[in-house]
Fold this protein.
Amino acid sequence: MSEPRFSVGQRVQIADRTPPVHHRVPSYAKGHVGVIERVCGMHANPERCIRGDGKPFQRIYRVRIPQTDLWAPYEGPDGDKLEIEIFEHWLELAQ
Amino acid sequence: MNESWGPHDIGGQTAGPIDLGEHDIAHWEWQIDAMVRLALKKGLISDFAELRDGIEQLSADDYDRLSYYERWAKSLAYTLLSKEVIIEQELNDKIEVIRARQEAEGLR
Amino acid sequence: MTGHDDHDHGRTFQPDHPEPTSDGALVGLALRELLIEGGHYTAEEELAVIAEMQGASPENGGKIVARAWTDPEYKKRLLKNGKNSIKELGFDLEPYEFTVMENTEDIHNVIVCTLCSCYPRALLGMSPAWYKSRNYRSRVVREPRAVLSEFGVDLSDDVDVRVHDSTAELRYMVLPQRPAGTDNWSEDDLAALITRDSLIGTQRDLSTK
């Protein structure tokens, strides 16, 4: 089991890429910056599950993004958030 | 907004009002659900990701036109065909047998 | 309604749900017959899986909520580690990470799976048709307040809305606020108040009837 690369509270950016294989990152989130809300466990990598065994397992993080960053316009107050689970290999520290 | 990469990648798209009706699950739909779970349990597919992948491979038309469990069925068929658990000829033959039976029974 | 057709593989007739005739459904029926004929599984195994699925309901989630409402230490454990805490009540959702989001005066949570329809079925039963629908999946991430209004949940700007998109291996349940006037209620009576929609987040207020 590997040590988490990221910790709660860090600002991270979700990769903006579209590999030609099953992956679990919705388009609306790609390229966006959020904050690590929770460090979760290790799971099979969906990109390696089709005809593969999902290994090496990757860590999942919950990333919290302000809705006003995602949508323009957004009908709601600044406190509204969207939270999604992203695998570690899709995240980098935000600049 | 980034371009959607498949017919399933719809978060954030514009869409209409939500149908709040309760729709019972039909017996054949329970059977499709059970078939997928059993396919996993028996190792015919290794992970639920394979089912999702099959659904993501559907054309935009199929994705819209097919009901939820019809998408599951098509996806599982696609996956099992590509793994050669079944072959296309036998699937097509079986579909025709069922179609003929339904016609004979006045269901069609 | 599953008794008639143990060994007659093709027959799925029910009075209110006749056998489907669409192309898509025929693929499913045909595939099923091939797999059963090919010995990959049996009709008996199929019935057992269906029975197990039909046995799950939001009552399971309701029990977890009622325990959390009456036992503050359990609630803390549940919010911190849902995966392990539900095992204390005899539930298990492994390998998924069961995650509970608490509604408060200031926060309302709502769950979706935009990419498909992930849902903790063992704890909440089968997902409603609307949860799986295009319109819910596409709109609730972008305009949750408008969607919630369609469900009769109207929130002031003092309440933050958090939308949780179940994109990977977590499975979610909302912990609704305990209604006023239930101070001495038993766990069973509290559990009976809880609805499926309140566990998904498309209902906020639970009445005490």
